[in-house]
Specification:
Largest sheet: 5 strands, mixed
Low-confidence stretches: 138-151, 298-308
Oligomer: single chain
Helix content: 25-40%
Number of helices: 10
Strand content: 5-15%
Order of helices and strands: EHHHEEHHHHHHEEH
Radius of gyration: 28 Å
Distance between the termini: 98 Å
Number of strands: 5
Shape: globular
Length: 325
C-alpha cells in the first residue's frame, strides 16, 4: 500500500509589524546634504551607539523617536540604554531635538521633532541649520483636510391648521463640573507610565502648573512627553517628581509682538537628555548646562586615569635609567 506524503508545507515567514509613526508634524526629520549611505557609517562610534544609529538612520520620515518607542523596537537595549545612546549621538553631531509652535490664533501648540544627520555635524552647522528653519516661516500651520460641504437641511414638515404644535422644551443648563484639560493630562500620566500615577488630590494640587504649560502653547501630548521622558528606574514620590519637572521644564512664552528688525526664534533646541529648551548656542552638543557636567566628569576621569598611567610609565623608565651603569 502506497504511503502518502504527509509532510506539511513550510510555514510562511511572518512579516514584522511596521514601525510606529508619529503624529503629523512630529517625529524624525532628515537634514539635507548628507553623504550617501555606506557600510562604514558610524564606524567610529561604540557598538551600542553604532547599532542604534544604524537603526535610526533607516527609519522613515515622521517615525516616532521617543526613547520608549525606540526601546520597544530594539530588544537588545532598554530605555535607559537608548536614552544614553541618543545623548552620545547628539554629542557626536548626528541629531538635535527641537520644538516649534504649530497652529495659529488661540490654537497654537508646541510640536517636537528630531532632526537626524547621517553625516556628523558640528555646533556651528546645527545653529545655522536651525536658523534656516526659522526663516522658512514664523509659525508652522497644520495641514488639515478641508471640511466636506454639508448637505442642505430638509425643510420642516408643515402641520395641519387644526393641529397645535406643543411648545419646545427649554434645555436646562447642566453644571459645568467637567475636569480641565490640565487636570486630564495629569490624570492620564499613569496610563503612559505607571511610575507617575497620581491621585485626585495630586492632580488638583498640580493643575495650576500644568494649566500654565497649556497657556504657553504646549499641547497635552507634549506635556505628557516632557514629564515621562527619561524617568529613573523608580519614582518614590510621583507628586513631588512631577511638580519639579513642571517647574524646571516650563516652556517659554510665545512672543506676541516683536519690534521691527528684531529676529524672533520660533525653533528651539531641546536638551537631548532632559528636554529643557534653549537657543542653539546655549545648548552645545544638544545638551544643557545641567546635563553637561556628567559627561565632563566622565571625560575628566578618563583623562586623569590616562595621565596616571603615563606618570607611572615615566617613573618606571626613570628607575631603569638609575640602575643602568
Amino acid at each position: 500500500m502506497a504511503t502518502k506524503n504527509l509532510s506539511p508545507a513550510l510555514p510562511a515567514h511572518a512579516s514584522s509589524p511596521p514601525y510606529p509613526m508619529a503624529k503629523p508634524g512630529y517625529g524624525k526629520r532628515s537634514t539635507p546634504d548628507q553623504a550617501p549611505r555606506q557600510a562604514e557609517d558610524f564606524a567610529l562610534l561604540p557598538e551600542r551607539e553604532r547599532y542604534i544609529a544604524s537603526f535610526v538612520d533607516r527609519l522613515p520620515e515622521g517615525a516616532a523617536m521617543t526613547v520608549k518607542t525606540l526601546a520597544q523596537q530594539l530588544p537588545r537595549y532598554g530605555q535607559q540604554a537608548v536614552g544614553t545612546a541618543l545623548t552620545a549621538l547628539s554629542v557626536a553631531g548626528h541629531l538635535r531635538r527641537v520644538r516649534r509652535p504649530a497652529g495659529e490664533g488661540d490654537q497654537v501648540r508646541w510640536v517636537f521633532r528630531t532632526f537626524w544627520s547621517r553625516t556628523a555635524r558640528d555646533n556651528e552647522w546645527w545653529a545655522a541649520f536651525i536658523a534656516t528653519e526659522d526663516s522658512k516661516g514664523a509659525v508652522v500651520r497644520d495641514c488639515a483636510p478641508a471640511p466636506l460641504p454639508h448637505a442642505p437641511a430638509p425643510a420642516p414638515a408643515r402641520l395641519p391648521a387644526d393641529v397645535v404644535k406643543p411648545p419646545a422644551l427649554q434645555p436646562t443648563a447642566a453644571p459645568d463640573d467637567s475636569p480641565s484639560p490640565a487636570y486630564l493630562a495629569l490624570a492620564q500620566l499613569g496610563c503612559s507610565d505607571a511610575r507617575l500615577a497620581l491621585s485626585a488630590d495630586d492632580c488638583t494640587a498640580l493643575e495650576g502648573l500644568a494649566a500654565e504649560w497649556l497657556a504657553r502653547g504646549a499641547s497635552a501630548e507634549y506635556l505628557t512627553h516632557a514629564l515621562t521622558a527619561g524617568l529613573p528606574a523608580a519614582v518614590d514620590v510621583p507628586r513631588g517628581f512631577v511638580r519639579r519637572r513642571l517647574r524646571d521644564k516650563m516652556p517659554p512664552r510665545l512672543p506676541t509682538a516683536a519690534p521691527a528688525g528684531t529676529p524672533v526664534r520660533h525653533t528651539m533646541v531641546e536638551c537631548t537628555t532632559c528636554g529643557v529648551p534653549g537657543r542653539p548656542e546655549a545648548l552645545p552638543d544638544g545638551l544643557c548646562r545641567a546635563c553637561r557636567p556628567t559627561l565632563a566628569t566622565a571625560a575628566e576621569r578618563v583623562t586623569d586615569s590616562t595621565v596616571a598611567r603615563d606618570v607611572h610609565a615615566l617613573v618606571d623608565q626613570l628607575r631603569v635609567l638609575t640602575r643602568t651603569p
